[in-house]
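Q: Give me a protein?
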Amino acid sequence: MLKRASTLVLRRGLSILNNDGVFRVHPSVSQALAENRPVVALESTIITHGMPYPHNLRTAQEVEAIVRAENATPATVGVIRGKVHVGLSSGELDFLARCDGSMKVSRRDLPYVVSQGLSGGTTVSATMIAAHRAGIPVFVTGGIGGVHRDGQNSLDISADLTELSRTPIAVVSAGVKSILDIGRTLEYLETQGVCVATYGSSKEFPAFFSPSSGFTSPYQVCNPDKAAELIESALSLGVQSGVLIAVPIPEEHAAAGQQIEEAIQAALEETNAKSIRGRDVTPYILQRVNELTKGKSLHANVALMHNNAKVGSHICCALAARTKKSKSQSQPSDCNIVVIGGINVDFIAKGKSKSLQFGRTNPGSVCQSYGGVGRNISDCLSRLGRRPLFISATGRDSHSEAVFNHCRHMNTSGVTRLEGASTATYCAVITESGELSLGLGDMDIHQQITQQYVSRFKEQLLSSKLVCLDGNIPVSTIRYVCSMAKEHNINVWYEPTDSEKACKPFLSDAWKSLAYTSPNLSELCTMNKTLGLQTPEVLPSSLEQLLSLAVALSRPLLEHIHCLVVTLGADGVLVCGEHQAGSVRLQPRKDKKRKLCAVHYPALKVAARETMNVSGAGDSLAGALMAGMVQGQDTDTCVRMGLLAARLSLASPHPIAHVLTAHSVDPHRVPHHSWPPPRFLWID
């Protein structure tokens, strides 16, 4: 279980880079999602195909303004030059509004439009895909597509309906346009298992320009809380289908409904006479209806979009509140962990040959992932149900957008985003076997995790059970936390990250306030050297000599540090500390008269062909061990949780395995005979 600051992701991680290259999440959207604030997705065909310029641009701006006024973040989805944007800048909105020849992009069109670098407005189905991918649960539109009239013969059925059946997202709309076969549309939605509910005091299903269609919805939700409750229930069931919330047009704007309906019928007759078919029908009818009603339909269309945006924002905010409440209730009340450390965006260049030749181009692959020791440990704890507060710093750049989107499951409210700074990046060049050949890092941002910034979270630090520091943060910040720990009896875990940074707490008496540290042998040597103690120039090769050296180097540190977890790579882990009932006591106590011992746990075997990377194994071990400690588990259980988490990491393309759960690291699920026996050692 080798430990490195970088994240070595092998070839299977390449899809992450490719996908991030296609989908672009606007910083305001990624920030809101990372902070668990409500985000409302909006489609863009209303901009590109629904209204003429400048009405289209003005309407889009007004709808976004309404969403913001209701304390939610708008995320208009569109395709610009082959990139799917989730959230648009003002310039990008204007570009789509003026774009001649823009495509109408549905699910089937996405591959072509992206591959050709084209631009266009996303329909309901394409917007649902992008919103769901970004993690946005609520999408507001005007009206959805449906089964066209005579659809039983033509089979002209909108992709919106099938998308609702396979994408778990809530769509807030004004029902279905009356140019469609509303009855068959509702029947089709029922067949596809889509939950449909009318919003308000009636079950009457709306028909876009009219609050009444002559059909009823299966269900009805009377307010935002009830709608949010329905959506939350649907999402939690994991049925992988959407929810349609049909919002009637306000009565004051429905008065012209009869005139609009007559214009629709006339426009329908024209489409038949002119043999207009398929995707061209709806834009033609909307344009003709606007002409025939002298703009009244356009006015009603804008009014219902405004209303949908307001109602959808209310529902989205209610859903966010319910989600936040649910998370706070499910989070263990006795678990308070703070992790302070670095975030990296890593680029891993892996050669395809056993050796790399410098000065020339070598064949290989390049992958991107997300690392940083502090981030990794926080990720591990979060996946094990502990959800610590993570304090760190990034730039306000494209890399940070990707990081926040990737870390949505974590509590990143303590991560500051700094203008003009660059998110930490690391580039590793590795051989075919995974050995590091060359590494380059831009880690200056970590110096912005200052004492002054961390002091903003003093209340959380004082109430925590455990504070974990990684070696990336400044020495002054480490000293600040250690002084607070000494004064208020806080348990601090120091994760060195590498040999150079292992010395940081030992440059002063700050190390005497540490409760735990988890070095490898090289880092343990650095700690001893910094204290002026003698260390060997070359590390031994045999296991017996390694254990003997680790015990000798741990002994002086145990004068003040309660417990050392010495990682030995493929040889496992050595836990050193106070003896208790044949093992090491993990929970600190004030009694200074301690009898010291060490227990060696061999690593769990992982076949070479199953090993994807070795970068996150140490962080997984530490994170899972911490999780067990705060749960009050015994030492043996805690260490074995860590070993199981490390094995999952080794077999994963990610530093922290995405399949990591409390269940997957439960040592009681592993047959007793599968565990290599630990070895007990006394420390003189």
Remarks:
- The two ends are 28 Å apart (CA to CA).
- The chain is about 40% helix and 20% strand.
